[in-house]
Design brief:
It is a single chain. With 173 residues, the protein is an all-alpha fold. It has one domain. It is 80% helix and 0% strand. The chain contains five helices and no strands. Helix 1 crosses helix 3 and helix 1 packs antiparallel against helix 5. The longest helix is centred in the middle third of the chain and has 39 residues. The protein is elongated. It starts with 7 loop residues before the first helix and ends with a helix.
């Protein structure tokens, strides 16, 4: 069955879900870092707002191509670009590292009674702040939650995209 018939609608739905999850985590991290810049008087955190905005534009651009191209090289390049950018920045960089390491692990160790010396080695100031602002920590932890959602949605999109691509190739052979 060609991708542009019944396969196109699931592809669009999976793409929309993956894009929305990525955009949600990018928006959350922009708000989180802007708030952190204000709360901790660390304006250098604001660079993340720019990175999040540029990443959102890249993902939106790749999604735009994917919606307009049912097959071919442009679609393949857009799919690879979307998957790589989404995986590297929203999922791994923000979700798993920023949310998981910088907030979930930090809070678990801190509230679990880890020594101040080990905390300072694992989370050296001024890059890291020990838990002290509940809004900053909650938004930080939520990055992992959204990162897991984004990872699941990206996996489903990539799985469907590659299966559809292989199926299209097999049908044309």
């Amino acid at each position: 069955m060609p991708m542009h018939s019944h396969g196109a609608e699931p592809s669009r739905i999976l793409l929309s879900r993956a894009l929305h999850a990525a955009l949600a985590i990018l928006l959350l991290t922009a708000v989180h870092h802007a708030y952190g810049a204000y709360a901790y008087d660390t304006p250098w955190r604001l660079h993340v707002v720019i990175v999040a905005g540029l990443t959102a534009l890249l993902l939106w651009g790749a999604a735009h191509v994917l919606r307009r191209r049912p097959a071919g090289l442009a679609r393949t390049v857009a799919l690879v670009a979307f998957c790589l950018v989404d995986l590297l920045l929203p999922v791994v960089g923000i979700g798993f590292f920023e949310g998981g390491y910088n907030h979930v692990l930090k809070n678990a160790l801190y509230f679990g009674g880890t020594s101040p010396q080990l905390m300072a080695r694992l989370f050296p100031p001024p890059v890291y702040e020990l838990p002290g602002d509940w809004l900053f920590e909650i938004t930080g932890v939520l990055q992992l939650v959204l990162g897991v959602v984004a990872a699941c949605r990206l996996y489903r999109l990539a799985q469907h995209g590659w299966h559809a691509r292989a199926h299209t190739r097999a049908g044309s052979a």
